[in-house]
């Protein structure tokens, strides 16, 4: 019997956490354990989780250890401390559809190599009203275009859609400094693609991806006019340029962390190293490099201003 671990990192999630926990209880596939670590909530999140743990002790297990300082490190700490055959990341404010775990197990149980499986999502508002039937269509992401090059500069796959095996999880924990990692889910994709793990896309929504004011990261649901007004404001106060430059340089730092793990074929490692060092080249060389290698990502030509 597969040992499946659902990793739930919580922080000040009292508003929505009960709906997520109830959606886990309602899963058609029952052979899993949800491991919870709270990162210092100031609200009733822990109390709510304790009530569920008391009522369903075989399903929910709260792990008690020091705070980690953010969602990324919270999830990575759970991945380090929990031993399982398969792992799934779980966000506190989403809702899983009843067949989520069952569908993902069915899609991966015959795979003999390392794998990372992921599904689509429905985007919903705070009250779970559907905003979009597909996260990937709404985000204009073509799943077939996700490869080890494009994944260097953008995290395409939300962690809450993932299932991956034990061996891949342990490889992902071989980083030297988590400060160099942008997000836990982005890192998982990079490790999977650079270790030739099998990528399995389940082309149906298996969760409700809630959008609200407190989202750490989410599917942006702004109109074009609102986006333009928002960006004009940021241009005027200087925050847009700062953010875009950081969004260009920080993935290179993450790529260097990946290179230091030693993962990847010679071809992939050579590309990663070239990407890591591209910041030392002149503006023209950097622009040509990005246009050549990331044409499926840089749809907005003006992003090249900050390359």
Structural class, judged by helices and strands?
alpha/beta
User: What oligomerization state is this entry in?
Assistant: single chain
Estimate the helix proportion, in percent. Answer: 25-40%
Counted by DSSP, the helix tally is: 11
Mean pLDDT: 91
How does this model look, in words?
The protein has 307 residues and is an alpha/beta fold. The radius of gyration is 20 Å and the shape is globular. The protein contains 11 helices and 9 strands. 40% of the residues lie in helices and 18% in strands. Strands 1, 2, 3, 4, 5, 6, 7, 8 and 9 form a 9-stranded mixed sheet that branches. A hairpin with a 5-residue loop joins strand 6 and strand 7. The chain has helices at 17-25, 45-55, 71-81, 100-108, 135-138, 166-172, 184-194, 224-237, 239-261, 266-277, 283-293; strands spanning 4-10, 32-38, 60-62, 86-91, 95-96, 115-124, 130-132, 162-165, 198-210.
């Amino acid at each position: 019997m597969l040992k499946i671990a659902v990793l739930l990192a919580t922080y000040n999630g009292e508003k929505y956490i009960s709906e997520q926990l109830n959606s886990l209880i309602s899963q058609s596939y029952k052979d899993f354990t949800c491991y919870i670590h709270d990162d210092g909530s100031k609200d009733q999140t822990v109390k709510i989780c304790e009530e569920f743990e008391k009522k369903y002790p075989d399903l929910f297990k709260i792990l008690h250890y020091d705070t980690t300082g953010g969602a990324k490190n919270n999830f990575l700490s759970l991945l380090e401390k929990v031993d399982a055959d398969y792992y799934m990341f779980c966000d506190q404010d989403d809702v899983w559809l009843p067949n989520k775990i069952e569908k993902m197990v069915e899609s991966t149980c015959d795979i003999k190599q390392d794998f990372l499986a992921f599904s689509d999502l429905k985007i919903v508002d705070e009250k779970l009203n559907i905003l979009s039937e597909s996260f990937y269509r709404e985000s204009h992401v073509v799943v077939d275009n996700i490869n080890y090059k494009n994944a260097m500069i953008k995290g395409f796959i939300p962690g809450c859609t993932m299932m991956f095996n034990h061996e891949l999880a342990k490889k992902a924990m071989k980083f030297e400094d988590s400060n160099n990692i942008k997000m836990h889910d982005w890192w998982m994709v990079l490790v999977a693609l650079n270790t030739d793990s099998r990528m399995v896309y389940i082309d149906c929504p298996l969760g409700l991806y809630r959008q609200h004011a407190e989202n750490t990261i989410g599917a942006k649901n702004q109109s074009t006019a609102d986006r333009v007004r928002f960006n004009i404001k940021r241009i005027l106060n200087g925050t847009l340029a700062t953010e875009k430059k950081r969004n260009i340089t920080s993935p290179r730092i993450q790529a260097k962390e990946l290179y230091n793990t030693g993962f990847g074929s010679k071809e992939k490692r050579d590309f990663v190293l070239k990407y890591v060092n591209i910041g030392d080249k002149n503006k023209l060389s950097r622009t040509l490099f990005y246009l050549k290698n990331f044409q499926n990502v840089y749809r907005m030509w003006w992003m090249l201003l900050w390359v």
